[in-house]
Amino acid sequence: MIPISYFFVLSIVLFALGILAFFIKRDLITMFMAVEIMLNAANLAFIALAKAAGSLHGQVIVFFIITVAAAEAAVGLAIILLVFRQKKSIKTEDMRLMKG
Amino acid sequence: MAAFLFFLLAVTCVGSVLAMIISRNQAHNALFLVLAFTCLGGLFGLLDAPFIAAVQIIIYAGAIMVLFIFVVMMVNLRQGITREKKKWTLFFSGGLAIVLLVELILAIRGTFFALGRTGGEKTGTPTELGRLLFTDYLYPFEITSVLIIAALVGAIVLVKKGAKE
Question: What span, in angstroms and rounded, lies between the C-alpha atoms of B21 and B94?
Answer without folding.
Answer: 12
